[in-house]
């Protein structure tokens, strides 16, 4: 069983590593799709610049404030996910920057590759393992736990 789990993890790590090496953008593909959806919605927003970092964003139904320096928006989506929301993207566009550069570093391809950088090395079968003089481990002792006492059933009911 341990061999099967090791083989599964070894294969999965290599597949994810190969997949990530084929990505050509700065951020992972699923995050890129979310960013594209937010970018479509950002077209409905009107940014009003307070200074270089602070913006007031007028949406079709709401109004929010964005601080690009602290990477936060009053809708809290950017704060919670690390992916710029539509209000933040509108403010970033106003600064003539790309929204991809404001995505949290945990969503970058380089971080993904670092996570799958180390490899799980293959194992030989158990018959080739070195023999040990110690006795085999015993299972843990089992004690019956106290339970609720059984109810006395009434006869004839």
From TrEMBL:
The keyword Metal-binding is annotated on this UniProt entry: yes
This protein's UniProt keywords: Metal-binding, Zinc, Zinc-finger
Residue ranges, annotated region (Disordered): 137-157
Ranges where the SWIM-type domain occurs: 64-96
Source species taxonomy: Eukaryota, Viridiplantae, Streptophyta, Embryophyta, Tracheophyta
Listed PROSITE patterns: ZF_SWIM
Pfam family, one: SWIM
InterPro entries, sorted: Znf_PMZ, Znf_SWIM
Key word Lipoprotein present: no
Protein's UniProt name: SWIM-type domain-containing protein
Molecular function in Gene Ontology: zinc ion binding
